[in-house]
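Q: Here's a chain of 448 amino acids. Please give me its 3D structure as tokens.
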Amino acid sequence: MSCGCSRPDNDFVEPPPPTVTTAKPVQQDMTLFYENNGETEATNSAEVRARVRGFIEELVFEPGQVVSEGDPLYRIEPEQYAAAKMQAEAQVESATASISAAKAAKEANAAEVERSENELRRFKKLLESNAGSQSEYDQALAARDAAVAQSRGSDAAIELSQAELSVAKAALAQADLDLNYTTVRAPISGRISRTLIDRGNLADNGSSLASIVDRERIYVYFTIDERTLLELMKQRPEDRRSGPVDWSKVPVYLQRDEADSQWRRGKLEYVDQTGINQQTGTLSLRAVFDNPNDDLLPGMFVTVRLPVNQVKDGVLVPQRAIMGSQQGQFLMVVGSDNRVEQRPVRLGQKLDGWVLVTDGLDKDEQFVVDGIQRARPGAAVDPKLTELSTDDSPILKAAIELKAGSESRPSDSKPESETAPDQSSGNGDAEKNNGGQADSPQEVESAS
């Protein structure tokens, strides 16, 4: 006989394994980069200075305006310099007239010399034939000598007048220059600063009036350590066989700030010829970048990346999949039995949310991307495989495009987004130079 109530069975039912999202690493060739800070400087700048003294009559520019070489900028009162030019012109005319008068006098003196020579010959014949006196001959000789002296004096007068003409012409040229200098013109093309001397004020000869900065291209100064330099030279053996390394073939990439997703491409322009600085152990370099949008200003601090080395079939994983503990960094790897293994890994460069795994992960292994908090070492999981792609990374995507077209793209092409670099700085020494931050891998063309 059964009881009215029976106790249900309390059998334990094991819960299903937690669901996690897994993926295989992305494998692709990459270029390792050295990263450091750099400082920008204008490729060309000049001060606008007054070259004559006077009151400023007019300003014909606005602060910040783009001016071209030779454009008028200031007008200094010209009246005194116009008067000085007229005076110099008069002196030239006077000296020219003096030369004409001296030449006319020379012609008259030449005729007098000829007449006195004839008279001297006639009195000499009379004296020899006892038909003339010695005194008459002496008088004719003295007249001839006086005529010759006057002729020589006219030659000296011509030379003096010609010298005066040269001085007058030089004074006229200077007066003409001074008058032209009353219009102060731009010495170079670029953007002009505010004026330092306003209209109506006196400017002395040599006074600084404004500055012009050419920002169409920008220099960036930065340094690399000795070890990176040797690594960079090692990647260009073909240059060292034929002569010194042609540094202008090495591309350089610039990022204005972390919020700027664009990497601009430039080229090395100068390497410090004094060599390694013994105090810092670094070599100073200078790169040049186009600045068509005028958004790079002199004196800015920027991030510079220099391609150093290549990695074949690099293994990339999302940075969010990396875990850390006191023992080091690791991934949650899911094996063929769907059980989780805490796998220690060695990491290389980091870039745009991706990390290069240099040791500890095979290209065909799956690791947990999402749901890491539900994945416990040794426990089973329900893996949902997803496919990763670096297409969502603007830098890595640009790197792939750049590498594909690297042979045809000039090293000084315009610094637009399609010329973005591909990776961050490149080795352990580079990390030290960057405050302990690992560098980032990408797929751009190598230094070679």
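Q: Can you summarize the key feature?
A: The first strand starts at residue 19 and ends at 23.
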